[in-house]
Each structure stands twice: as structure tokens, then as C-alpha cells.
Amino acid sequence: MSSEIQIRTAYEIAKERYASLGVNTEEALIALDQVAISLHCWQGDDVGGFENPGGELTGGIAATGNYPGKARNASELRRDLDQVYRLLPGSHRLNLHAIYLDSVNKVARNRIEPRHFTSWVDWAKANGHGLDFNPTCFSHPMAADGFTLSHRDPGVRKFWIEHCIASRKIGEFFGRELGTPAVTNIWIPDGYKDTPADRGAPRARLMESLDAVLAEKIDPRFNLDAVEPKLFGLGSESYVTGSMEFYLAYAMQRRILLTLDSGHFHPTESIADKISALMLFLDGLLLHVSRGVRWDSDHVVTYTDDLQSIAREIVRSGALERIHIGLDYFDASLNRTAAWTIGARNTLRALLTAMLEPVEVLSKYESEGDYASRLVLQEELKILPAGAVWDFYCTRKNVPVGMDVLAEIKAYEQRELSGRG
Q: Active site residue: 70, 116, 129, 230, which one?
């Protein structure tokens, strides 16, 4: 029996198993096909960017490892991304940081313009990708002391305000050109290593700066604004200006997106439980799917219980169209195209498993107070053949199944990455 026949046979069995619980696997696959994961460009070159090649990472950013073959310019990065997208079922997006501009001349960050990113737009148009954007408020002399939009110096704040305004205009440009709104997400490294005397003043300055950044209204058909909180970071262990409480209140009042990064909270705290609560009050969420190990170490996303919980809450919320999903990690210890592929496929696989859940049956048991039946079904779902549905989906979308992915990655490494030194 050929592999394709085996996959089809396994799928038909799985289809029947799920149908017995009232789940239509074909509907789940159609729903999954509508999901566009935003891949993070910075996995391909260890957050280096092309503004200042070889520059030092600052702002609590650290990429560990020295695996050969990282992208050295925008053309190489796009080739690597092309390879990754070929290994993913569905149609997906790309999330760009400002330091990934494609310009032969040095450009100050507060002077970046859409023209510095036209090659990315041309590539996105040719390949059917949407683009998202981020101002880069780290690894820069004007952020050397760990503060940007909440800096005590008005001149420093002005520089970063101008940078964020320019970034929003680039996001708008992406949305207009590509016909799908860009999510422009603001994260800053601002905070204190040790206990501050005044926690309020930096936050008041941050609020004033953000209001200046967002003063010009941009059509949401082209750009959506988001702000990203963090519990702590390297160099900001005791205090982060942009905390969860600050940004949640700000996002609610200003009617913008709140970003939840799964690595930005306490290691024992999952963002999954936050989703249903926040979706009652916010117009939308941006999720950065990552995997912190003991701290915000941004490991490659694996198929963990935490990832599955996040996926279940996304699907159960019934608001997939209001939740934007992106990846955020940077691991330089292994093949970088493999890192992208593993994380993206795991995220999609977790979403599919969530879509195969008989939510109505579980909710019925719960509403009736039949918690034993709820628990039995929850446990049985853990070993139902979701993998067979995933394999069939990959086959249908003409992407590799299982370990065949590794063969493609190794072939690309030999063909392309090995020559980069």
C-alpha cells in the first residue's frame, strides 16, 4: 500500500471517529485553510536586520547559537522564507521589523519610508503574502540606556515617536498595496534593572508618547495598531514601563489591539486563560506564539500542552477573524528554516486539533453539570487521530508529510545554506 493510500485510509477512519462525536473533519479543514500565520522575519538572521549588519543586539534581546547559514541580506532571507512557505499548508503572512529595510544607503530609523520596503511588497505580491510590521525600538544608540518612548529626555522620546509614526505609515503602505491590513505592533524594552523610586512618571511619559504616535488616524482597512506588554526582561527585571496592566488599559481606552506574547509572562502563567476574558472587551488581539523556558528565551514552538491550550481558546472564542496569530522566537542553535517550519506547523496542527473538538457536546455536559462526562470526553480527545487528519491536510495541500519535511530542509541546506559560510 502506497504512502498516499495509507494516509487516505487513515483519514477516512479518523473522519468516522470524529463524525461519531458530531465533528465534521472537512469543515475543520476548510476553517484551518482560512488561518494565516504571520512568520517572523527575525528567525532567519538572529534579529540582526540589514540596517547595521553585525551590530550588537541590545534591549534584552539575545539570540544564542552559531549554526551556519543565516541570511546575510534581504534576498537570502526571502529565499529562505520561500522554502519555509513551501513546507506549510495554507497561505501565510510575514512579520517585518523596521531594521529589515532593503536600502543601499544608511537610513535613520526616524526617517524610514515605504520606499525602503518596496522590494518586500513586490515579493509579497508575487507570492500572495500579507505583511505586518514592527518599529524596532532596540539595538540603537538612542536606546542605549534601556529607555525609548518613556525616556526622561524629550529629545530621545521625540526620536522614537517619529520612528513609530514612520512605522505606522509603512504598515498603511503594506495594507494599501496588498489588500489586507498590516498589524503594526509596538514593543519597547523600557524598564529598570533594580527597584525604581518612581513607577508612575515613565508610564505617564509612555502614554503621552503613544498618543502622539497614534494621533493620525489610519483606515483600519490598511493598518491595525497593537501594543505589546511584558512582565520583565534582561535589564528590566524589576520594572517594565509597558506592563500588562498599562497596555491593557491603554488598548481598551484607545480601541487598538493588545498583543499577548506567550513568553512575556511568568513561566507558570499561560496566556490561554486570558483570551476569553479579553475578547469580551477588546476589538481584537494579536498573539505572539513563542516558548519561554524559565524566562522569555524565545525557544522554537513545540507541540506542548500550553500551545494546545492557546489554540483551544482561540477556536472556542469563536472570534478567529479578530485574533491575529504570529510567531516570535529566534533560535540560532539549529537550522533556521527548520526552526521556522517546526514552529509554524505545530501552531497550525494545534489549531486543527482544536477545530476537531466537539465543543457543543462538551458545553452540553458542562451546562448540565455532568462534569464526569465532560472529563471523560476531554481525556478521550487526547488520543483521537487528529494526526491522521493533519497528514491528509498536508497531502491535500501538496506539502510534505511527517519526516519528509526534514528531507526537504536538508536538501535546501545543502543546496543554499552551506555556501554562506
A: 230
Catalytic residue among 45, 51, 177, 328: 328
pLDDT digits (tens, 9 = 90+) for 127-146: 999 999 999 999 999 999 99
Q: Over the chain, what HEC string results?
A: CCHHHHHHHHHHHHHHHHHCCCCCHHHHHHHHHCCCCEEEHHHHCCCCCCCCCCCCCCCCCCCCCCCCCCCCCHHHHHHHHHHHHHCCCCCCEEEEEHHHCCCCCCCCHHHCCHHHHHHHHHHHHHHCCCEEEECCCCCCHHHCCCCCCCCCCHHHHHHHHHHHHHHHHHHHHHHHHHCCCEEEEECCCCEECCCCCCCHHHHHHHHHHHHHHCCCCCCCCCEEEEECCCCCCCCCCCEECCCHHHHHHHHHHHCCEEEEECCCCCCCCCCHHHHHHHCCCCCCEEEEECEEECEEEEECCCCCHHHHHHHHHHHHCCCHHHEEEEECCCCCCCCHHHHHHHHHHHHHHHHHHHHCCCHHHHHHHHHCCCHHHHHHHHHHHCCCCHHHHHHHHHHHCCCCCCCHHHHHHHHHHHHCHHHHC
Q: What is the pTM of this model?
A: 0.96
- Catalytic, 298? Answer yes
The question of whether 228 is a catalytic residue gets the answer: yes
**120 catalytic residue (yes or no):** no
Q: Which of 15, 264, 274, 324 is catalytic?
A: 264
Mean pLDDT, rounded, for 9-21: 97
Q: In the annotation, is 331 catalytic?
A: no
Q: Is 296 one of the catalytic residues?
A: yes
Active-site residue flag, 379: no
Catalytic residue (choose from 261, 306, 313, 331): 261
pLDDT, one tens digit per residue, over 17-76 is: 999 999 999 999 999 999 999 999 999 999 999 998 767 767 777 788 889 999 999 999
